[in-house]
Specification:
Blueprint: E1 5-12, E2 18-26, E3 34-37, E4 42-48, E5 51-52, E6 55-58, E7 63-66, E8 75-83, E9 91-97, E10 100-106, E11 127-135, E12 139-142, E13 146-152, E14 155-160, E15 171-174, E16 178-184, E17 187-193, H1 202-219, E18 227-233, E19 240-241, E20 246-250, H2 262-280, H3 293-311, H4 317-329
Parallel strand pairs: 1-11, 17-18, 18-20
Antiparallel strand pairs: 1-2, 2-8, 3-7, 4-5, 4-8, 6-7, 9-10, 10-15, 11-14, 12-15, 13-14, 16-17, 19-20
Helix pairs in contact: 1-2, 2-3
Length: 330
């Protein structure tokens, strides 16, 4: 079953990290029941066509079964509450951010269900429309551009443009980002950093612009979104994550200054190219099962080495690819 979309509304408290939410799920046609993935969040109720519907929570299988629905139902609305993870680096979690804190997400492979109830499977592509209410201080970054920010006393509600159809993905909220921004055609490329470090995003943004051009030519398909954010996350369990339109990075693989060693700047260029490769191969086109992640990663590795080698031939990255990547695969 493929669902038409999620309309997700969250109300988030700082600094506790507790939140309540409602997700309205579009149904693809007449169905009696709907089974969503959910883990670590608490159900508060469900309704369809203006009437309450049963909700069965099955912790062992991390599923909520909703229904039966009235015959006229085209959507089902689910209310829930959750809390930011403060003891790990997965799901919706807390990171350091300069002198403050950052609430961010790492939802792959199956952590979207810990943020909101959804079909947490790569083959289940759907649009996401996010509306999030926070205290007035934090800034919110999502995969798509901000459409509206509405102040209500000491709180702000932000509404973002709908995503293209994709598996559930990520957002970031924090206090005080600095920015380094350049334009690449119709795409706004921005590096978001902790306070006072905006200029350290220049090298990553310059390389992001180059690889956007290179991949558009290689794939024969332009980058499909209006923006590309490169987001620095101080506490991050991986090198980077290719969230469509809002890639998250460990700081050392994104930020550079005058004292950054040449080898590390080379590594930043490689990681930026790898993650942007996934904007096409991995996001625009997604494997049906996590068991096939090797194809997703191996192709992104190959094309990123190939492109960066063309941009910086003196680095001899294809030689490194043969000795490091190919050797390890044999």
């Amino acid at each position: 079953m493929t669902h038409l979309g999620y309309r997700l509304a969250l109300t988030l408290d700082y600094p506790s990290g507790k939140y309540t939410g409602t997700v309205e799920v579009s149904l693809p046609g007449p169905v009696d029941t709907l089974r969503l993935n959910a883990a670590g969040i608490r159900p508060l109720g469900a309704s369809a066509a203006g009437s309450p519907v049963p909700l069965l929570e099955e912790a062992a299988t991390e599923t909520w079964t909703l229904g039966p629905f009235p015959g006229s139902a085209s959507t089902v609305s689910v209310r829930f509450q959750g809390e930011v993870n403060v003891s790990g680096l997965g799901g919706f979690y807390r990171s350091r951010h300069g002198e403050g804190i950052l609430f961010t997400t790492h939802l792959a492979p199956t952590n979207a269900r810990s943020l909101f109830p959804c079909l947490d499977d790569p083959k289940e592509r759907a649009t996401v429309e996010l509306e999030i209410t926070t205290p007035a201080g934090p800034e919110v970054i999502f995969n798509t551009p901000l459409l509206q920010a509405r102040e209500e006393g000491d709180r702000v509600t932000r509404r973002f443009a709908p995503t293209p159809p994709w598996p559930p993905t990520s957002s970031t909220s924090g206090w005080g980002f600095d920015r380094y921004t350049e334009q690449e055609g119709k795409v706004t490329v921005t590096c978001l950093t902790p306070p006072g470090r905006g200029t350290e995003g220049r090298w990553a943004v310059e390389n992001a612009r180059k690889v956007l051009r290179g991949y558009a030519d290689y794939y024969g398909q332009p980058y499909p979104l209006e923006k590309l954010d490169l987001v620095s996350v101080q506490d991050f369990g991986m090198g980077a994550m290719e969230n469509w339109g809002a890639i998250t990075f460990r700081e050392e693989y994104l930020l550079a200054n005058a004292s950054t060693p040449a080898r590390l700047k080379q590594r930043i260029a490689e990681v930026v190219a790898h993650e942007i490769a996934h904007q096409w191969f991995g996001n625009l086109v997604t494997m049906a099962r996590w068991e096939d992640i090797w194809l997703n990663e191996s192709f992104a590795t190959f094309v990123s080495y190939r492109l960066v080698d063309r941009l910086y031939p003196a680095w001899d990255l294809l030689g490194e690819f043969l000795s490091v990547e190919t050797g390890g695969a044999l």
